[in-house]
Design a protein that fits this description.
single chain; 4-stranded mixed β-sheet; 547 residues; alpha/beta; 45% helix; Arc Repressor Mutant, subunit A; Rossmann fold; 15 strands; RNA-binding; 3-stranded antiparallel β-sheet
RNA sequence: GGCGCGUUGGAGAAACGGUUAACUCACCAGCCUUUCACGCUGGCAUUCAUGGGUUCGAAUCCCAUACGCGUCACCA
């Protein structure tokens, strides 16, 4: 068989050679240990926490080594593509602070190793495909999908391994004339790889996370180019990551099974293999069973969910980092001030078993992040989120920035700052009582304080109220009210002898608390009052007396 | 069914042949306290999926078994 002739028959329009491509996409001019990584999401309209998980790994690997991190859109499956999906990916990555050095953008792309959308790289794939045909390493296959399915049935019946290989690869040995006739008859074909591998042999592959791997050689004549001339993932991955000069391929462990294919193509073409980093996937509990996060079953794990709930990008990063490198937590404790980019991230430290996604832990980290953040910065972040999800509250925040910052700073000072805020959505709810427009009584009055007693307490309170008091002076007046109305000054005393008192100071201060904040639980009452101002505080007490 | 990967407390995990099996979250108890938080103190695996080995000594090495996950497309 004259393979040159066959290649020309199959791809008459391809004029470039692999050597031309090598010249077009030369090795990158980077420092010795710089890593080049990427994420390759499919534009299915769904960006998942798992996408971010791999993005964080790739981003850290690249940027902590002064390398390059880029975005490639893997749109080889036209059937699954959703309009606007690229924008969805871009905006999710943008919100979570993932920055690309090159790759696809909303309308186009930037960088010297593109195109960064696989469908636009058809000529590149076909150039390599043509070369493989010339080398006798690839051949056209005219089997229909039904024929392949039937083959599979036979293999199942005979308890053989599935697939297109060995004696089952019927198109492997078609003559030039047969191929030419099929083509002339207008039969569609796929291009298959002619594997030289054997299931008995094994290859050694180094994995950045799992270490040395000994895997079975590939022996499948898998599809390189589909009948529309677009590559399968397997071929696109090899060609793209070679010419885009990717040094580290970070991807989920579901690719481990097909790794032998990729390795064989790299080796066949004489290209150096990237360092593969197969990540253990994030898991979640589904009833009793632990299973991988799935985009079909777990829509709540879409990045959009965290965005709309107002989780801070920094908190999500910190959480992901603790899952990825468990020593991150200790590092963070030792270096509370350093930006997370200072942390020496290592693939070797990554776990090989899937971690359960723990929302409670994310919340804890979020609290920590928000607690450490200066009020002005909290204001900016909250406002930005509100502009998108709660315009009304955004207007309130903007109406008086000083006031907003004052209430955000409340409880932040001192050696033991409060940790009241978790997410932006939760923060809006938490802060609502500071604004009359959002104020409402959420909790019931304390049990030992009925309506008439409340009036008594509040009228005394209003009489004594002096906004020039300090916290101690103010509280002394609350105590005085308690004494006058026979409420125990110490909750413990009341507990011991409930028959001696009408209640304890807890009841009195909580009555005031509910009047001012609408809640039984709140930060320091006097500080809140100071922030609200005398007028508003008095008004709320007066309103409460009328209830 | 074949092949691959995994298995330390409720969750994330450390430990790389020799300690009372770190640390963080959650949970529980106590303290602090005008509430809630915060903070502090203590509790929470006599045991590292199970069964065999190797060794003076094993969560750590070896072999089986079980369970879980992944994958076997002209999807990625």
């Amino acid at each position: 068989m004259d393979y040159n002739k066959l290649a020309q028959l199959l791809y008459p329009d391809i004029n470039k050679t692999p050597a031309d491509l090598e010249k077009m996409f030369p090795p990158r001019d980077l420092p010795a240990n710089a890593k080049v990584t990427r994420i390759g999401p499919s534009p299915t309209g769904f960006v998942h926490l798992g996408n971010l998980y791999n993005a964080v790994i790739g981003e850290r690997l690249a940027h902590q080594s002064n390398g390059v991190f880029f975005l490639r859109i893997e749109d080889t499956d036209a059937k699954r593509e959703v309009p606007g999906a690229v924008e969805t990916i871009l905006s999710a990555m943008h919100y979570f602070g993932v920055h690309f050095d090159e790759g696809a953008t909303a309308g186009g792309e930037f960088g010297a190793y593109g195109p960064y959308r696989q469908r636009q790289r058809k000529e590149i794939y076909q150039t390599i495909a043509k070369f493989l045909v010339q080398s006798g390493c690839a051949y056209p296959c005219f089997c229909t999908e039904d024929e392949v399915a039937a083959l599979r049935e036979r293999q199942i019946a005979q308890k053989l391994n599935f697939g297109y290989y060995g004696e089952f690869a019927t198109c492997r040995n078609l003559s030039y004339e047969q191929i030419e006739a099929n083509l002339a008859a207008g039969k569609p074909f796929v291009l298959r790889f002619r594997s030289k591998g054997c299931a008995e042999n094994s290859v050694k592959v180094y994995d950045g996370i799992r270490g040395e791997l000994e895997i079975q050689e590939n022996y499948q004549d898998f599809v390189l180019l589909k009948s529309d001339g677009i590559p399968t993932y397997h071929f696109a991955h090899v060609v793209d990551d070679h010419f885009m000069r990717t040094t580290h391929v970070v991807r989920g462990e579901e690719w481990l099974a097909t790794l032998p294919m990729h390795v064989e193509v790299f080796d066949t073409l004489g290209w150096t293999r990237p360092v593969y980093c197969h990540t253990a996937q994030l898991m979640k509990m589904d009833g009793e069973v632990k299973r991988k996060l799935s985009k079909r079953k777990d829509p709540e794990l879409a990045l959009a969910y965290y965005h709309s709930d107002g989780y801070l990008p920094q908190a999500v990063w910190e959480y992901l980092l603790t899952v990825l490198n468990s020593n991150y937590e200790q590092w963070r404790l030792d270096n509370p001030q350093l930006p997370l980019t200072e942390f020496p991230f290592r693939t070797e430290k990554m776990s090989t078993s899937g971690a359960l996604f723990d929302l409670l832990k994310l919340d804890d980290i979020s609290k920590e992040v928000l607690c450490a953040m200066p009020a002005a910065q909290v204001y900016d972040g909250l406002l930005a989120w509100c502009e998108e999800f709660d315009r009304e509250f955004a207007a309130l925040l903007k109406r008086d920035r000083d006031y907003a910052e004052k209430i955000l700073a409340l409880g932040k000072q001192g050696a033991r700052p409060r940790k009241d805020l978790i997410t932006w959505r939760q923060a809006v709810q938490f802060l609502s009582f500071y604004y009359d427009e959002r104020f409402k009584q959420e909790d019931a009055w304390p049990e030992h304080v009925d309506a008439s007693l409340r009036k008594e307490i509040f009228s005394r309170y209003l009489v004594g109220l002096d906004f020039t008091d300090d916290n101690a002076q103010w509280f002394a007046k609350v105590r005085a009210i308690c004494e006058a109305l026979n409420f125990a000054l110490q909750p413990k005393k009341y507990k011991k002898n409930p028959e001696l008192y009408r209640g304890s100071i807890v009841d009195v201060s909580n009555a005031i608390r509910v009047a001012i904040t609408g809640r039984l639980n709140s930060p320091d009452l006097w500080e809140i009052s100071q922030a609200l101002g005398e007028e508003r505080t008095r008004q709320r007490i007066r309103n409460a007396m009328e209830d």
